[in-house]
């Protein structure tokens, strides 16, 4: 199966320090996936790689031939994926605005009928837990229902170094065991939904949201 791991932070400077704290967490998550579940195709989607215009225009609002190449390419990746892992910091008790902005460029039909997993982190003691609560509703509205187990990494700068390895004194195996509870749920649901999509095409049951927000309420 194919998994997309979204790194939902574009902060790449100091202060605050260290820069790109989320990159450490994301690398650790990917390392766990590759070492324990390496039979799957895993791809990182870094919000920093998408320099989107400040004036919002969703992907579906462009004529197909005129949409920015990076949005077309990402739309294809989202559509072909079987599950998603969303990694976000916490800003003002909510998810990263960079992650929300990136995901909001796409209609829910690309994400729908597939599972997602929530990973949050912080430099403080709560690990982004409050952001994760809001992410449940956000991801549900996209159609990629989050699995019940979530991952929270408090004081991430004291847990992981720049390449995603654990700091001295931390036990990588224990962290990977903690990640595994969420990942196992994600894999189970991804496998189940993929099999069901092969049996019944869900997009024939409900009109896809592909051109206008009003389609969300059409029969």
Q: Would you kindly provide a written description of the structure presented here, covering whatever features stand out?
A:
This protein is α/β, with parallel strands linked by helices and 219 residues long. It has one domain: Rossmann fold. It contains 6 helices and 5 strands. The protein has helices at residues 21-36, 69-80, 97-103, 108-111, 129-142, 172-199, and strands at residues 2-7, 41-46, 83-88, 116-121, 151-153. Strands 2-1-3-4-5 form a 5-stranded parallel sheet, with helices on both faces. Strand 1 (2-7), helix 1 and strand 2 form a beta-alpha-beta unit. The radius of gyration is 17 Å and the shape is globular. The mean pLDDT is 90.
- Morphology: globular
At the fold tier of CATH, the topology name is Rossmann fold
List SSEs in N-to-C order. Answer: EHEHEHHEHEH
Q: Could you give the distance between the termini?
A: 31 Å
CATH class reads: Alpha Beta
Would you summarize the structure shown here?
By secondary structure, this protein is of the alpha/beta class.
Spell out the blueprint of helices and strands.
Elements: E1 2-7, H1 21-36, E2 41-46, H2 69-80, E3 83-88, H3 97-103, H4 108-111, E4 116-121, H5 129-142, E5 151-153, H6 172-199
Parallel strand pairs: 1-2, 1-3, 3-4, 4-5
Helix pairs in contact: 1-6
